[in-house]
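Much of what follows relies on a compact textual record of a protein's fold. Here is one such record, which you should read through line by line:
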Amino acid sequence: MLIRSLSNLECTHLLISTRVGHLACAKDSIPYVVPIYFAFEHNYLYAFSMPGRKIDFMQANPKVSVCVEEHGKGREWKSVIVDGSYEELPDRLGHKQQRDHAWSLLSKHLDWWEPGGLKPVTPALSDHSDHVFFRVFVDQVSGREAKETI
């Protein structure tokens, strides 16, 4: 097995071609990791969620990491780690263009809203909960790859 580091360009290609990653955030020294569906463009990961634990954590501490993986044949794999900063795209003036852009990127893919929009318990119809569009500015990216050696 050969392990090597990925170039920035290779990391970018994996981020562009992947839709699901694991977001790590922390609040009050408590870590939290959750899968997210995202779209990558121009040094940002764009995502969507309903209000909840991850949004609460990121509002309290905007420093986050996202892990993206791709599994190849046999034991081969690639992974990319993004370290970045959370930025909420609220539904108000000053953020409409970025929010609409996030929606346009995410909605290009079937069922883009499910990971962020579905919850284990369905709330009553009278309980309205606004959805949250957000993005993660990529401060740093690194990646590795494992290849079989013959």
In short: The CA atoms of residues 51 and 131 lie 6 Å apart. The mean pLDDT is 86.
